[in-house]
Specification:
mainly alpha, 2 domains, 5 helices, elongated
């Protein structure tokens, strides 16, 4: 029971923090995890009821089977958390052709900014800062 409550609390915390973890949350659906936890809770309730109510004990295998079917169904029909598009690789020439001609930065400016960012990242070890998120820049 403690493990289930811990998992439920972790799921709720993750759903609350989802906005801080991902910049695009419209397609992230974690309902399947809720259904998974509900199925496990039903299985635990069946077990507890079969311990205390002896009339249910002969039916507990059938109830377990139904619970496991629901558990398997919710697990197998879950959608991908982060959608990926299946596409053919685009040639580099096609990418260059699609770029707009009125770019704001010259290639030299982009290179200079790239070097500055890499240098700061390596010297100050910015990648180790857990507080460095997109929301921290607002």
């Amino acid at each position: 029971m403690y493990y289930w409550m811990s998992c439920f609390a972790l799921l709720r915390r993750h759903q609350a923090n989802l906005l801080f973890l991902s910049s695009f949350t419209e397609n992230i659906d974690l309902k399947w995890l809720s259904y998974l936890l509900a199925s496990v809770l039903v299985l635990m309730c069946i077990r507890l009821l079969s311990l205390f109510i002896t009339e249910i004990t002969p039916f507990s295998p059938i109830l377990y089977f139904g619970g496991i079917i629901v558990l398997a169904y919710t697990s197998l029909t879950q959608q991908s958390i982060y959608l990926t598009e299946a596409s053919l690789p685009v040639e580099k020439d096609e990418i260059e052709a699609k770029k707009e001609t009125n770019e704001r930065l010259t290639p030299a400016q982009v290179g200079k900014l790239q070097r500055i960012i890499l240098q700061k990242t390596q010297e100050e070890k910015l990648y180790l800062d857990p507080q460095l998120t997109l929301s921290a820049w607002h």
